[in-house]
Amino acid sequence: MRLAAFSNLDLLQFLDTLISLTTAFVLGTLIGAERQWRQRTAGLRTAVLVAVGAAAFVDIGMRLNGNASAVTVLSYVVSGVGFLGAGVIMKEGLNIRGLNTAATLWGSAAAGGAAGADLIGEAVTIAVFVLAANTALRPLVDLINRQPLDETTTEATYEFRVTVSPEEMPVVRTALLDHLDAKSYAVRQTETEEQSEEALDLSVTLAGSSAKSDELDAIVAAIEQMPGVEHAAWSMRTAD
């Protein structure tokens, strides 16, 4: 009676698996080192484990049922890494962090999957492009981010916040909406929140659009002159 573990041992196939996993390990290390250097949520070890895991699953699929099985395994790797990437995405107020790290994990899985499918050249190429996206494109990103925003061409979400007495709230709200309507600004949402017994917070959010800052400043100035208004201001955030 022969043990299946020994009967299935093929030195050439084992060497092929070793090359695939080693390639995935090296490429995952290169990708992860860049993330670790920048102190991102998913760093060196995470990228390596994703790459090696993807390579291992694809390699096992090929060993068991050839290319057809490898394709099936790859589809599960893609969806599985999607769930893993969602774990590193965090929302902090209006900001969302971790999207780039999640995409990097996806790229690391792609490199590992290619390595597991014995596409070593393709695996190296994928890793090079992932690294280039995270390093070579950084100066271009910084250059674009340093450019001043043009309110007339940038699609964004604008919000007005007014602190007003409860007695004057209906009048102030109507006046603010009238000012916005006169400038053809569409209102997406209006909310009222109690700040204290003597003050309410009125929040008016415009639909994603382009706006002129001088017009918004004029509206704020007009609202601030109304009785019962303690404070009025507007803010902008770029659309997702």
TrEMBL record:
<feature type="transmembrane region" description="Helical">
    <location>
        <begin position="43"/>
        <end position="62"/>
    </location>
</feature>
<dbReference type="GO" id="GO:0008168">
    <property type="term" value="F:methyltransferase activity"/>
</dbReference>
<dbReference type="Pfam" id="PF21770">
    <property type="entry name" value="MgtC_SapB_C"/>
</dbReference>
<keyword id="KW-0472">Membrane</keyword>
<keyword id="KW-0812">Transmembrane</keyword>
<keyword id="KW-0808">Transferase</keyword>
<dbReference type="GO" id="GO:0005886">
    <property type="term" value="C:plasma membrane"/>
</dbReference>
<feature type="domain" description="MgtC-like C-terminal">
    <location>
        <begin position="158"/>
        <end position="234"/>
    </location>
</feature>
<feature type="transmembrane region" description="Helical">
    <location>
        <begin position="68"/>
        <end position="90"/>
    </location>
</feature>
<comment type="similarity">
    <text>Belongs to the MgtC/SapB family.</text>
</comment>
<keyword id="KW-0997">Cell inner membrane</keyword>
<comment type="function">
    <text>Virulence factor required for growth in low Mg(2+) medium and for intramacrophage survival. May be involved in regulating membrane potential by activating Na(+)/K(+)-ATPase.</text>
</comment>
<dbReference type="Pfam" id="PF02308">
    <property type="entry name" value="MgtC"/>
</dbReference>
<keyword id="KW-1133">Transmembrane helix</keyword>
<dbReference type="InterPro" id="IPR049177">
    <property type="entry name" value="MgtC_SapB_SrpB_YhiD_N"/>
</dbReference>
<protein>
    <recommendedName>
        <fullName>Protein MgtC</fullName>
    </recommendedName>
</protein>
<feature type="domain" description="MgtC/SapB/SrpB/YhiD N-terminal">
    <location>
        <begin position="21"/>
        <end position="141"/>
    </location>
</feature>
<dbReference type="GO" id="GO:0032259">
    <property type="term" value="P:methylation"/>
</dbReference>
<keyword id="KW-1003">Cell membrane</keyword>
<dbReference type="InterPro" id="IPR048640">
    <property type="entry name" value="MgtC-like_C"/>
</dbReference>
<feature type="transmembrane region" description="Helical">
    <location>
        <begin position="12"/>
        <end position="31"/>
    </location>
</feature>
<keyword id="KW-0489">Methyltransferase</keyword>
<dbReference type="InterPro" id="IPR003416">
    <property type="entry name" value="MgtC/SapB/SrpB/YhiD_fam"/>
</dbReference>
